[in-house]
Amino acid sequence: MPERVLRVCALYPDLMNIYADRGNLIMFERRCQWRGIGFELSSAGLDEPLDPDGADLYYIGGGQDRDQKLCAHDLAERKRDDVHAAASRGAVILAVCGGYQLLGHSYQLGVETLPGVGLVDLHTVRSEESRLIGNVAIEVELDTGSSGRPQVLAGFENHGGRTFLGDAEPLGRVLKGHGNNGGDGHEGVRAGNVIGTYLHGPLLPKNAWFADWLIATALGLAEPLAELDDFLEDAAHAEARRAAGV
Ligand code: GLN
User: Fold this and answer.
1) What would the pLDDT profile of 166-179 be if each residue is shown by its tens digit?
2) Distance separating the N- and C-terminal Cα atoms of the chain
3) 112, exposed or middle or buried, with CB in 10 Å at 0-12, 13-18, 19+?
4) Is 127 left (phi over 0), alpha (psi -120 to 50) or beta?
5) Which residue from 16, 54, 104, 133 could staple onto 61, CB 3.0 to 4.6 Å apart?
6) What confidence tens digit (pLDDT) does each residue in 16-37 have?
7) Which atom of ligand 1 is found nearest the CA of 65?
8) Does 200 participate in catalysis according to the annotation?
9) Best residue for ligand 1 mutational test, from 22, 71, 97 (most atoms within 8 Å of Cβ)
10) Residues 222-244: pLDDT tens digits?
11) Cβ-based neighbours of 84, under 8 Å, separated by 6 or more
12) In this model, does residue 147 exceed pLDDT 70?
């Protein structure tokens, strides 16, 4: 039995999994495995309970508007208290794109307003204008304990929704791309260990350093994770930055 185990719970893994966002889960699994850290994956789909103590990290990927509709009600009505309980005890919550949009108060889709889970002060509005699509790079300030690593996240965005933060900090500053709404230069949200972002790619295979930050944070590690041979991961990161022009 490994001394440490990272327990990850994927929310709606079949519905909220656009642009191969499931690759983020594989990234967690492999980077734990390569270091001798155990990895346990559970899931909480529609109508299934979410155990607020059952995971160190809860993950929700992106999704089409129609799949988001199904998940939004389930999340806000059936899982709300448990998601809040998990966040209150410091579990990491990582949400990408469509999942990110559900972290706030609401996602307004024309005449319909989908409820959010209300973890952070933000709301999203579906615009009639062009979707915000393209390669994106953002600058983030996270304590990685290793000053030599890049503090840039690079990926790809494709969203019709525009997200507006209230009393909440963005995850990062847009270097290239659109970010939350194409206007204010903000990308994503960070409230303690709750993180939302529009970045696909998938996000983590292109930003291995961020995967490690999330693993270390979820496990509450004081010491840095063991280094890995990141030749391919660094190349993927460099290519994502090159594509974004950063
Ligand atoms: N359906 C949402 C939008 O278009 C999110 C899309 C996504 O997850 N890529 O804004």
Assistant:
1) 999 999 999 999 99
2) 43
3) exposed
4) beta
5) 16
6) 998 888 999 999 999 999 999 9
7) 1
8) yes
9) 97
10) 888 999 999 999 999 999 999 99
11) 117, 118, 119
12) no
Catalytic residue among 105, 123, 186, 200: 200
Place of tokens 């966002």: 21
Rounded to an integer, what distance in angstroms lies between the CA atom of residue 79 and that of residue 50?
6
Q: Read off the tokens for 234.
A: 């660094």
- Say whether 97 is catalytic: yes
Burial class (CB in 10 A: 0-12, 13-18, 19+), 229: exposed
Taking the C-alpha atoms of residue 146 and residue 138, their distance in angstroms, rounded to an integer, is 19
Can you tell me which residue has the tokens 């030749």? 231
Specify whether the backbone of 96 is left (phi greater than 0), alpha (psi in -120 to 50) or beta.
beta
Task: Give which of 1, 3, 2, 5 is closest to 219, Cα–Cα.
Answer: 5
